[in-house]
């Protein structure tokens, strides 16, 4: 009986996921892999760093995904003159009560879009440290907890150097995944142009209706936590992360936080593939996106033209896949 109930739950889950993907596809052409990774991040209760050149719909994807979930959403545009209080909020003296009132900043929402995160200096970026890891904000001796779910989508442009600041390693490590949005294929670009030319098939963002309620999302996250993982696969994850610490191409390897992130992401991705158990392929698929932003390569490896993604892929291939 219990097994049948579980199957029914999974069927409802799959229907919701299909609806989400169809709604995203009605606005954004292609980018199926990016959408899968973003949904994986949400189900794994993590934060996502979306990287891509200007004009590939990074912000649009984040705003659209937020609209599909019936929850509080806020957007923060990071700029060089942004202060931590502009993000977290500030304490203001109330003359009526002769006391200080805390005015909440835009970081207080269920889904927060931090646009162009690398445009603000380190002082402002570090304002996100506590809230990303502990889902709370401490100001003037008081602690303010965030609601559940609490997810941050951050976007950044990898090519522009003018007026940008490198993200600290401690902050990068707090992102479950770094997702790269590539250019569309020729067919996809033609489809984009056809949509804009006809203007009929363009779906406006404010016309999108939520598909998931907060309680449904929390139930889906709970299902992701209960996905079955064999002990041999836990060992497989640990061996992959160990490889990053012993490789000659890597100056700084992944931390235990990365191992946990890899496990959470693999479980969430398995559920998106309509399975209640993890396979080695799930781990291999999510591993590059979980690990690439956590590694610092040696100067020699960089000079030889290696990227973090390429090194991560080679390290994964070195580890024997459990039978």
Chain-wise SSE layout:
Layout: H1 2-25, H2 32-43, E1 48-51, H3 58-67, E2 69-70, E3 73-77, H4 84-88, E4 89-94, E5 99-104, E6 111-115, H5 122-125, H6 129-134, E7 136-139, E8 142-145, E9 151-156, H7 169-172, E10 177-180, H8 186-198, E11 212-213, H9 214-225, H10 231-246, E12 250-252, H11 256-272, H12 280-291, E13 296-297, H13 299-303, H14 308-318
Parallel strand pairs: 1-9, 1-10, 2-11, 3-6, 6-9
Antiparallel strand pairs: 4-5, 7-8, 12-13
Fraction of residues in β-strands:
15-25%
**Rg (CA only):** 21 Å
Q: Which strand order do you get reading across the main beta sheet?
A: 3-6-9-1-10
Specify the biggest β-sheet: 5 strands, parallel
Number of helical segments with 4 or more residues: 14
Spatial shape: globular
Structural class: alpha/beta
Characterize the structure shown.
Helix 2 (32-43) packs across helix 11, helix 11 (256-272) packs across helix 12 (280-291) and helix 12 (280-291) packs antiparallel against helix 14. The chain starts with a helix and ends in a 5-residue tail after the last helix. With 323 residues, it is of the alpha/beta class. It has 14 helices and 13 strands. The strands form five sheets. Strands 3-6-9-1-10 form a five-stranded parallel beta sheet. It has a two-stranded parallel ribbon with strand order 2-11.
Name the features.
323 residues, alpha/beta, two-stranded parallel ribbon, 13 strands, 47% helix, 16% strand
Concise description?
The protein has about 325 residues and is α/β, with parallel strands linked by helices.
């Amino acid at each position: 009986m219990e097994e049948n109930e579980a199957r029914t739950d999974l069927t409802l889950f799959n229907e919701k996921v299909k609806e989400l993907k169809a709604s995203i596809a009605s606005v954004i052409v292609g980018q199926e892999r990016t959408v899968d990774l973003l949904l994986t991040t949400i189900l794994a209760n993590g934060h996502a760093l979306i990287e891509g050149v200007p004009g590939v719909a990074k912000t649009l994807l984040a705003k659209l995904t937020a609209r599909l979930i019936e929850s509080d959403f806020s957007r923060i545009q990071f700029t060089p003159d942004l202060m931590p209080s502009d993000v977290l909020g500030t304490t203001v003296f109330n003359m009526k009560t002769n006391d200080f009132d805390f005015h909440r900043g835009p970081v207080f929402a269920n889904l927060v879009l931090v646009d162009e995160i690398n445009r603000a200096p380190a002082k402002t970026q570090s304002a996100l440290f506590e809230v990303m890891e502990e889902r709370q904000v401490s100001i003037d001796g008081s602690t303010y907890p965030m609601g559940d779910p609490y997810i941050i989508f951050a976007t950044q442009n990898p090519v522009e150097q003018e007026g940008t600041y490198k993200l600290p390693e401690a902050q990068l490590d707090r992102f479950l995944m770094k997702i790269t949005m590539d250019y569309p294929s020729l067919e996809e670009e033609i489809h984009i142009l056809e949509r804009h030319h006809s203007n009929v098939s363009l779906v406006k963002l404010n016309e999108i209706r939520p598909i998931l309620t907060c309680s449904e999302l929390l139930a889906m996250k709970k299902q992701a936590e209960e996905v079955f993982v064999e002990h041999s696969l836990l060992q497989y994850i640990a061996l992959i992360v160990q490889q990053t610490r012993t490789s000659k191409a890597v100056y700084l390897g992944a931390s235990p936080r990365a191992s946990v992130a890899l496990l959470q992401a693999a479980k969430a991705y398995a559920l998106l593939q309509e399975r209640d158990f993890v396979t080695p392929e799930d781990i291999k698929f999510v591993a590059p996106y979980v690990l690439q932003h956590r590694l610092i390569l040696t100067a020699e490896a960089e000079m030889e033209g290696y990227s973090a993604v390429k090194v991560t892929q080679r390290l994964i291939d070195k580890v024997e896949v459990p039978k």
